[in-house]
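Now read the record:
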Amino acid sequence: MSETAANEVTQREMIRIIGLFRKNGFKGEYVSFQHVVDEGASYFVVMSDENNGTQGLFKADLLAGTIEFQYMLDENHEVAK
């Protein structure tokens, strides 16, 4: 399996991640999802605030049911496409 295929997030995984965010009261637009390398059920998620459009990077762990804020995205912090 290629590295790109290994990093793809399935629709089922996205639904589970969105469910975790909603359960924890997060609202906004989900910009991107990416597997955290070598961490099983952990994902990086970029969310955009529904009110002002600012974006933040979060780390979600489906097994532990946790979400950790990483940092705000701006001109100095961007997620690679």
Remarks:
- Residues 29 and 75 are 19 Å apart (CA to CA).
